[in-house]
Amino acid sequence: MSARPRPGENRPESPAIDLLIRNAEWLVTLDEERRIIRDGAVAIDGAEIVAVGKSDEIAGSYHPRKIIDAGDKLVLPGLIDTHVHNSQQLGRGLADGCDIPIHLLQRLYGYEAQLLSDDAYWAATNCHLEMIRAGTTCFLDPGNYFPDEMARTLGESGLRGVIARIAFDVHTTAIGDLARHVVRETADEALARAQETIDAYHGAHDGRTRVWIGLRIPAVCSDELIRKAKQTADANGVGLVLHASEARDEVVASRVKFGMPDVERLAELGALGPNVLLIHMGWASPRELALTLRHGACVCCTPSTGFRAGMGSMEFGRFPELLELGATVALGSDSAMSSNYVDIVRQMTLASGAAKSQRLDPMVLPPETVIEMATLHGARALLWDEQIGSIETGKKADISLFDTNKPEWQPVLNPLANLVYASRGGADTVVCNGQVLMEKGVVLSIDEERALFEAKTRGRRIAERSGLLGAIQPRWPII
Ligand SMILES: [Zn+2]
User: Fold this and answer.
1) DSSP state letters, 393-446
2) Which domains does the chain have, with CATH numbers?
3) Tens of pLDDT, residues 214-227
4) Of 419, 382, 420, 379, residue with least CA distance to 401
5) Which of 227, 85, 278, 231 is nearest to 166 (CA)?
6) First-to-final CA distance of the chain
7) How far is the CA of 339 from the centre of ligand 1 (A)?
8) What confidence tens digit (pLDDT) does each residue in 112-159 have?
9) 217: CA distance to ligand 1 center in Å?
């Protein structure tokens, strides 16, 4: 009889695995018990996590083909950004300093009107680059007119994501009309294209790509489109995503035209449910909050959009209450045009700080809660919680490592508080679906130099073509 192997000693029958993350200073699992494992390890084979535990227990049980040493690292489930307009990445700054009607109807549509398919591809590639560097492994893009380019980018970058072919069918609103050049489709035409996108890409790239139905703001969607969009999402077993009760102007616009705010209208049309993700929701009325809870719809809180666009989302939004009442409330970065960055750690900092400041309450939205919003709640909001959101055996290997060996992290007495309150964010190493997308700050899945070159040149050309460049110049002379 052979002697029982000691911990750390390779057993002859140890199975081979693809990747071992070991010696993690802090392994934050987000499992049922919310265990934080000191000197932790994660064994990964293919796309899946096969074991989680102490390094000395795990390391001796497998023959890994690759090892990542996570000494000095905070290891988290890959972060989930539930609102990211990939195609707006090259328009950073073009919607600055203007009121909501101009922001939506002139700046965003003005930029999009100039976007060619190659621009959309490079916008998405740069957006994925920013997300990987931020430690994001999964996102939802609420939709645009370039689903082929969005899917291609997902295939190449290695990220996990939900995309959509956007739908809307109304061109006049109570806060202004859309320009003539904006795409014009009927409800049926828009939904036929959305269905084509689901048929083409839902489940693509080893399951990393999913496709939902995306509506723009309800103010530009007819009752027929909203009703049919929910039915199409249900028939395909996918989600429906749309902006809702985003800003005061939009609440007024909906009341003037439809006699009620967005979420009440969605409820009237039978378009609320657990597969519906409501973006922003900073201006949701008490009745809208109750309807959201009653129908089990999910909410995406976007702190930086509120700050950048002066919308009061965190001041008037009721996100801590929704969380206490059991709602799913995830976080979203929005876009380079509305936010103006794509970084979910910064969203955690803003959400936590803004709620405390608004309520004069240092206990509200503690680090644990905002980290749950960026992981478990994000996974639930994207209908993906059986596979992602925590570091547990059987889940997909989506994992982000943050380097704590930096001045702003010292001393690391509470790593969760340091991540949210003290760090500058920015991951060191990112794994998605078992693939290493970034290691020690080097992005492996995207040619970063080429992507940045394309962003600089294409971004300036689009700004010039759209005529928006003059509107956003510094107030000081440039000599
Ligand atoms: Zn948006």
Assistant:
1) TTSB--EEEEE--SGGG-S-SSHHHIIIII-----SEEEETTEEEEETTEESSS
2) 16-77+394-442 (2.30.40.10), 79-381 (3.20.20.140)
3) 999 898 899 999 99
4) 419
5) 85
6) 83
7) 10
8) 989 999 999 999 999 999 999 999 999 999 999 999 999 999 999 999
9) 9
